[in-house]
Design brief:
Elements (H helix, E strand, L loop, with lengths): L2 H52 L5 H26 L5 H8 L2 H12 L6 H17 L12 H25 L5 H16 L14 H29 L1 H4 L2 H17 L5 H18 L2
Amino acid sequence: MQAADYARLVPLAAIWGASFIFMRVAAPVLGPVVTADARVLLAGIALALWFRATGFDPHWRRHWKGYAIVGLVNSGIPFLCYAFAALHIPASLSAILNSSAPMFGAVAGAMWLGERITARKALGLAAGVAGVALLAQPGQIETSNGGFGWAVAACLLACLCYGLAGVLIRRFAPDAAPRGIAVGSQLAAGLLILPAVPFWPPFAAPTPLVLANVLALALLASAIAYLLYFRLIADVGATSALTVTYLIPLFGVLWGWLFLGEALPASALGGGVLILAGTVLVTRG
């Protein structure tokens, strides 16, 4: 990786780490459904307009089914899960749990793509499980409105969806361009979640601060972040681009401390270290 690649990697990790802060501000007001739907729908519209202006064709008719499936599993369900978790647990905790996604990906690859679980990957998976167990101990972290266990489970479900996404892309959208998957999956997720909005309306009227966080979540943490991520993949490859996973929890904890006054106990930080160690072993194994 060159200096220009790191100049994209670090801001991308900072943006995705901040996405948990944005959800922590928006979800308690708008609710998880409106927060998640606004994120993907606005991001999809922004990307569609950008790609139209730059002349990129996502080939909607050819790939609509793949976009819908990948959008639901890789964006719709995870963003709903994280928005729900934002009602109950600190943003920094969600950011740490998010780093377990590559471990779910390794298991999914072994089950459906025939990828081998090496001794190093197995050690990484064991470290990740131990880290989640250490981090998910109830009573050590201050929560909002209870629901600690459900919030942790929601974050892990989101990571499971991320782990399955690679399998689904190969199965249902093998010929789709990465930029097409980015815009198609966001728009599809937004349209699929939209019918649920009347059943889970906002808890209160949004303030300018909440609206600003929603826009940041959609335009910065989704639309711009996808452009940075796929540029990284094009320049350095998917494996090197995946190192962003190592940095997201660090920024998530930093932003949570700076802007929300969050402080995690030593056990949670220790669990985060184990999860990160497991992620490194799995992705490098």
